[in-house]
Amino acid sequence: MNTQFFKRMLTQVLPVLGLTVLFFTLFLNNLNAQSMKVKNVVLVHGAFADGSGWKGIYDILTKKGYNVTIVQNPLSSLEDDVAATNLALDKQDGSTILVGHSWGGAVITQAGVHSKVVGLVYVAAFQPDLGESAFTWFSSMPPVAENGVMPPDEKGFVYYSKEKYHEGFAADLSKQETEFMYASQGAFAAKSFATPLTQAAWKTKPSYGIVATEDKSIRPEIEEKMYLRSNTKISKIKGSHAVYVSQPEAVAKIIIEAAENASK
Known about the structure:
Oligomer: single chain
Radius of gyration: 23 Å
Low-confidence stretches: 19-34
CATH topology: Rossmann fold
Strand order of the largest sheet: 2-1-3-4-7-8
CATH architecture: 3-Layer(aba) Sandwich
Structural class: alpha/beta
Number of domains: 1
CATH superfamily: Alpha/Beta hydrolase fold, catalytic domain
Strand content: 5-15%
Helix content: 40-55%
Shape: globular
Distance between the termini: 59 Å
CATH class: Alpha Beta
């Protein structure tokens, strides 16, 4: 008698319980979507690299519900890289955090005036002012011995030395990883480096700057000096110039902070 009673009860209760769990799950998902107002992130790589280096950060951000777009810079001029970034920004469906590494910092400083950009994140990146170029800051202090940026070749393109790529660009990654990165670096037009900026988005957009404390390509002192000048919120992460590859969780944390603060 009791067994039959409980069976009838379970038959009636289980469907209701299942519906309750379903509705509760949908409610939480909707609540999360509402709370994360800024869900778009555009990532801009620098010189001597390509977009594949953002893979770790892409994985972290997409798992948290962010829509991530990775720009493949042609590296043929500042104007061309800004145009490629603007194409990506045009396709976003709303407010966007724009992130740049190294040379990509100059690109996002120029492109960041786009109406969809609500925050900027500089990852061991250049942050020039109006009339300044990336080279203005690169040449403001003598390079360290490990730096492998080579003089322009006969066609006007700059590459990173194969012999110095590991120690100078990504010493906290395995040699196998840096060999791939070296092989996939784009040809960087030297004229890009010396082109003065005509926009400085950090003057009107909230900005976050990551100083890579073990950087041998852009001296950490230069990074910090730029960020202090612009009143950028500074975070220091122990890592090489390729800190976005070696420390994706720490870098992603700053990007998420920028998105959450822009949502308030």
